[in-house]
Each structure stands twice: as structure tokens, then as C-alpha cells.
Amino acid sequence: xxxxxxxxxxxxxxxxxxxxxxxxxxxxxxxxxxxxxxxxxxxxxxxxxxxxxxxxxxxxxxxxxxxxxxxxxxxxxxxxxxxxxxxxxxxxxxxxxxxxxxxxxxxxxxxxxxxxxxxxxxxxxxxxxxxxxxxxxxxxxxxxxxxxxxxxxxxxxxxxxxxxxxxxxxxxxx
Length: 174
What we know:
It contains 9 helices and no strands. With 174 residues, the protein is mostly helical. The mean pLDDT is 87.
């Protein structure tokens, strides 16, 4: 079965503690691909001595077990990264998520999810540098047209440009 419809399972909390808020989830296929390098850097046993609170007790205390977990997780992450998203197997994702639950503590997984969220934002956003007078003009248009964000303003201007191009083509054909 493919990962096209894979739903990330819930995080299994240490000692079965239930959170008061929203439950954490393990990785989806897209998140595993996005977090590949980050997770591979932080699942090494050496990281557990720097921030022991982020890792399960067994991962910190038993280097041989930690090494096996690290090798297995790194292999799975490499496999997932090289496979098209729609072809990743459920079993591969389940095995990776099981390892994540064995490696990270509840606090550590919260930290991983926070870093993953930041990575998603960085992937989806693009920074463009504008001169201050151009930014002021955009803000004036935004206020005049009562737009909520700069994105809306730019989208409006782009749609006007598209309309002008269509009008120019029609005028040219007549």
C-alpha cells in the first residue's frame, strides 16, 4: 500500500500521560522528507549527552541500542527521501514513526515538531527586498483597497496586470 493516504499516527506519551491540549502526531510522508536532514542530525547518541531531556532514558543510557536505532532510522529516512512520496510504503513510515517514539521523549518530540513547523514556514515563504518608497506605495494601495495583507495587495496588482495583458491582446487582434 502506498503513502498517498498515509495518516501519521498519534504520539505515544511516556507513562501514558494524556495531554490537556491537542495531541502530538508522528511524521507524515511529506514531513519525513522535509525533516530528513534535521532528524538525521539529531538522532545520534552524541546529541543525547547535550540535551538529555529531549531523548528517552534508554536512548541516553545504552549507546549500543542508540546506535542501532540511529542506523535504522537513518536507513529509513534515506529510503523515504529517495522514494517518490506516493510510492512510500505504510510499513516504512510506521517503522520510522515507531523509532521516533523510541528515541525522543515527549519534550524532545515537542521540540522536533516546533523545528519542523519552522522549516515548513521557511519553505513556504519567500523574502523579497523592496525599497522603502515602493513599500510605502504598496501600503497606500493596501489601505485604499482595504486589503488585509501585502500578499493580497500584490495578488490584486498581478491580477490587474493579467487583465491589462488580455486587453492588449484583444486590442491587437482587432
